[in-house]
Amino acid sequence: MQAVVLVGGFGTRLRPLTLRIPKQLLPVAHVPMIERVVSHLADSGVTEVVLSLGYSPGTFIDRYPAGVCAGLPVHYAVEPEPLDTAGAIAFAARSAGIDSTFVAVNGDVLTNLDLRSVWDTHRANDAVATIALTPVEDPSRFGVVPLHPDGRVEAFIEKPPPGTAPSNWINAGTYVLEPAVLDHIVAGRRVSIEREVFPELVAQGSVYGVPSESYWVDAGTPAAYLQVHADVIAGRLGLADAPVSDSAVIDATAKVDRSFVGAGTVIGPGALVAGSVLMDGVRIGAGATVDGSIVAADSVVGDSSVVSGGTVIGYGEKLVAGTNTHDGRHPSPETWEDA
Question: Are 209 and 260 members of one domain?
């Protein structure tokens, strides 16, 4: 079983964390997100992964120079230009010489979906494409997928206006595809699988959906990134990772609550860290508060500072003593174009 993993996006919603690295290399419970995704694929029977690269491809190649990620052999397919979802899948599949049934997944989706059941359903229906589906409260931000009682997809409605969706089952970003799908994707131009390819295949009656209540989250925003870590702590994702690294140094008078603390991080006297993610090598000063926020590696939060409300502090930033920031971004957006 081969899998194409889409990791070519710019990760703009997670800036400034993604100014230096792609979002799939951000840590999720101390382990890069891409390794979480690939590990799940391996557990599902995938034997080879093709990474469809776009933004900063060298960072992936440098991280896994031996061509192995989470124990699986990796083929790198670097897009010459952004090709959108279908274009990226086709480019990667052709680059790797895929000529049999394969899996395609979004590299920023974390799930414990039973991928084998999707594969088996695909085979049983002799489908050209099978889409894993997940329920959400507000489907207006996603691709809504109403199903016929026999499991056949009746329509593919991308991001319907609020209140108009015929279903709350959405495209979960995991597909089982036949090579014939590639014939519907013109090489060398941007092609959306959600807006172009799937609607065409649905009209031919060859697409099926598999609803699942499995854990699922698109970790592409700061709020979702924090939620994933809260879910790990609560045991919803099935990961047993210790929230606080053994090499972190936490003063006896400091308090850490519902947070991940990375290797080599130091939390000073009287500090409070709650519902947050501190990556490796962070320094939290005396009396500082970090609440519901993300602090990237090697950053410093000065004494008596208050960081709250979904603030995101990028790599190597230094907040001076007494800083008060709520839902802030450091460095500020005005500097991002030059970063």
Answer: no
Range of the domain at 306: 249-338
Q: Which two tokens stand for residue 264?
A: 């080599």
Could you tell me if 323 and 204 lie in one domain? no
Question: Any idea what DSSP says for residue 74?
Answer: E
CA distances from 70 to 61, 67, 89, 182 (A): 14, 10, 21, 27
Number of domains in the chain: 2
CA 256 – CA 208 distance, rounded (Å): 46
Q: CATH number, domain at 290?
A: 2.160.10.10
Strand partners, 312: 294, 329
Please answer whether residues 75 and 187 qualify as being in contact, where contact means their C-beta atoms are separated by less than 8 angstroms.
no
Flag whether 238 is in a domain. no
Assigned domain for 92 exists: yes
Q: What is the pTM of this model?
A: 0.91
Establish if 226 belongs to a structural domain. no
CATH code for the domain in which residue 148 is found: 3.90.550.10
Q: Long-range contacts of range 267-275, CB-CB < 8 Å, 24 or more positions apart?
A: 268/303, 275/226, 275/230
pLDDT tens sequence for the chain (339 residues):
999 999 988 888 999 999 988 999 999 999 999 999 999 999 999 999 999 998 888 999 999 999 999 999 999 999 988 899 999 999 999 999 999 999 999 999 999 999 999 999 999 999 999 999 999 888 888 878 899 999 999 988 888 888 888 888 998 999 999 999 999 999 989 999 988 999 999 999 999 999 999 999 989 899 999 999 999 999 888 887 899 999 999 999 999 999 999 999 999 999 999 999 999 999 999 999 999 999 999 999 999 999 999 999 999 999 999 999 999 999 999 888 744
Measured in degrees and rounded to the nearest 5, phi and psi for residue 199 equal -55, -35
Residue 37 in any domain: the answer is yes
